[in-house]
Here is the input.
Amino acid sequence: MIYFRGCVIREKLNNISEATEIILQRADVDYITLKDENCCGSFLLRTGFHDDAVEVMTKTLDKIGNDKILTSCAGCYRTLKYDYSNILDANLDVTHTSQFFGSLIAEGKLELKKVSEKVTYHDPCHLGRHCREYDAPRNILNKTADLVEMDRNKEKSRCCGAGGGVKSAFSDITEEISKMRIDDAKITGANIIASACPFCILNLENACRGCLKILDLSEIILMGFKDE
Amino acid sequence: MNKSKLKTMRESFHILEERRNNLMEYEATKKLMDRVKKIRENSISNLDNLIKTAKTNFETNGIDFIFAEDSKKALSEIYKLVKDETVVAKSKSNTIFEIGLTTFLEDKEIEVVETDMGDRIVQLDPESRAPSHPIGPASHLNVEDIAQIVSEKFIVEIEPDPHAIIKVIKTDIINELSHCKIGITGANSIAAEDGSIILVHNEGNISLLSMQDLHIVVVGIDKLVRTIEDAISVVKLETIFATGTTVPAYMNVISSPSKTADIEQVLIEDMYGAKKVVVIMIDNGRSEASKKCRECLLCIGCGSCVVSCPVYNAVGYDFGYRGYLGGRGIALSRFIENEKTCFEGGLFFCTLCGLCTLDCPVEVPTNEMIEKLREDSVKSGFFHKKHYDIVKKIKKTGQPF
Here is the structure.
């Protein structure tokens, strides 16, 4: 199995891959990471650069071959699972970390510890509405922390504002939306926003500037390990 | 849109959203959604036939039918009908806004009286570039803003009280209407097989307009459905999603000029209502849209999408084209106008989050339409330099930063 970290984790949020790898090793999972991991193509598809996307995706497909793929990124997950199938006719066996951690727990390979932290969960659009995965992250959070929902949750979740190339071209729009999302989270009384997309996490961190902790699911699991 | 207007708009939208969400859970609403989805699918798959059917049945019913392939033709046909007047009255209509009728007629020194309260307020405000919601056009203005706008226009001191404001505007509109002989409206739905126009309103202004000597109806081909029953389903669902109430105050069904056959069953026209009804049915790019982006014609015009849209909540009507607001409006602008207009109106503002589709009564897949239109836009050279630079970087280094 390839652990496909995605560009945001590789370049900006190593803490997520570090936490994820600690969990994988603890559960004795056999996996590799690619030294020359390439872009999944999501950004290019969403911003209309279709031909360039196909070029990049074809190269990436060559590198991942027929291996199972695990990814921490909701954007990579949606792209690898649906766009590779629609555009390149490649039906990849892709799992998101939220789902994989869930199956490790079910198989008894991973035991979670609950920490006394009030956590709210931000549904990434790419994992939630686009792939309809709402329960896997919540199952983990219910076992690891005190999960409190925002009013706008699951399919009604508010976008963090960064997707579709908006953050790179219109950062003021993104900032305005992220502020609304952070306000949604603050009302719950949670100290932590957990999410399952490094792109959302990076964006919410930029907008929040330390007002709340913004963490990946893997980092929440790791907090439980450290309490042991 | 400035910060204070955005704040007011979000508060209005929040109230609307709660009312709408309550009704969305009803079994009756869900059944109506299924029914309307089928009606709209059927309509956009049979546009050519529906246009022919509508023409035949309107003419049989004594309603003049004019087909306008573009806004230029629509404007010239309307001008022929109104050229002898100094003043005409209209209701709020995105189609009328789309063809730029008010500006066109005012350039020809024909005054156009807006009879919809919200739209009238928006038009009086020099700062408001467009309505902020298709059914609640003044959602971005609070009572203090409106009192000030109306005070400045009428040069009187008006208290920030809804009753006081409405009284002033209403008196003015009724006075203006007394000089009018022509009423111009849009239509919420058109029943082709019955030759009927279905109009929905709360204020009663459309009833007044339809009682003028000449009633002109300006409507896009995307409003066609088969029957009155279908049309009523569409407008009922539109009302639920637009206002969070189950029925509007008025649903007018107009199928001919006013008439009587009370004396020996001989048909005599010209009773209390319009002497003449003219339907101007416009294409203006919709046929092209039906081939290249057909789902954008499923829309029933309720505005639920902009209430949900995170980007619209952040920037307001700056994300849209004229009265066609948010992502779906931008998609339609590609066909009503061109790729440049679509690009400038915010083709790249959408985060592709998909919430609008979930809150849409007919599930218009806006994020998918936008993604496809972006692909075409980039091929035509309309893209953002920042995106292009990132694309180059990704291709070279495998990452965007």
About this structure: Strands of chain A lie at 2-4, 69-71, 94-96, 118-122, 146-147, 192-195, 213-216. Residues 183 and 205 of chain A are 13 Å apart (CA to CA).
